[in-house]
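User: Please run a holo structure prediction.
Assistant: Happy to. Please share the sequence and the ligand.
User: Here you go; the ligand is zinc ion.
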Amino acid sequence: MTAARRLMVVAAHPDDESMGFGGVLARYASEGAGTFLVTATRGERGRYFGHLAGSAEHPGRAALSSIRERELRAAAAVLGVGHVAVLDYRDQQIDQVAVNDGVPAIVEQIRRARPHVVLTFAPDGAYGHTDHIAISQLTTAAIVAATDASYDAGRDLGRPHVVSKLYHLAWNARAWAAYEAAFRKLVFTVDGVERQATPWPDWAVTTVIDTRQWWPAVWRAVSCHESQVSAYAALQGLGPDQREAPWGSLSFYRVFSLVNAGRQRESDLFEGIDS
Ligand SMILES: [Zn+2]
């Protein structure tokens, strides 16, 4: 039943789909799975070719929002993603979205796409990013609510759907080292406290997907985000081995599964679903 496989990624910003999940989106799309991407914001608070918002060279948030949505859709097309939904949340403010807005919006996407497998960020937000943490929480709540017709309370969010497996992105120390060597050290400051990349211990990783064959597609997808070029300029100087390093395989933590369990490490997100 390979053709019937359905995979959904719920991300926070344009570029999360390529930098974080690109390898699995490209791989499963190329293998014929239905692939669905939900991106919560348009990343309008980002820089523009390195220029800060408010500077003469920055086009302003409204324009950047359109530019980044275009880049997102171009990247998704390169990855072969079948369907892209952009929610209308403000960049760097997802943690202020009311659950009564944020959860139903994702419930609707889940019920429409009817994925077997959902991927999102872990509660560590990859490097403590508040948007990543918030989207992880909203997505988890939405998976629960999507199963329950009584959740709708007069809204029409679609027919209830049971997601079979939920995964969190779980990069280990090696993957983070490769990523930060290729790009930059990730630091996110919240209320005066510095947060950094939080590598997962290898023993906690439940699932490793071989995406080596797809790193060139991921690289092309990352390159679609050209307005964010300052963050990606480093890539230009890297050799193939270094470009492959962050994306040769992707690691996940299986948060729950209705179809399989146990300590054995998975090599396929759909393990237990096809059989
Ligand atoms: Zn992000």
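The pocket of zinc ion is lined by residues 12-13, 16, 129, 132 (CB under 6 Å).
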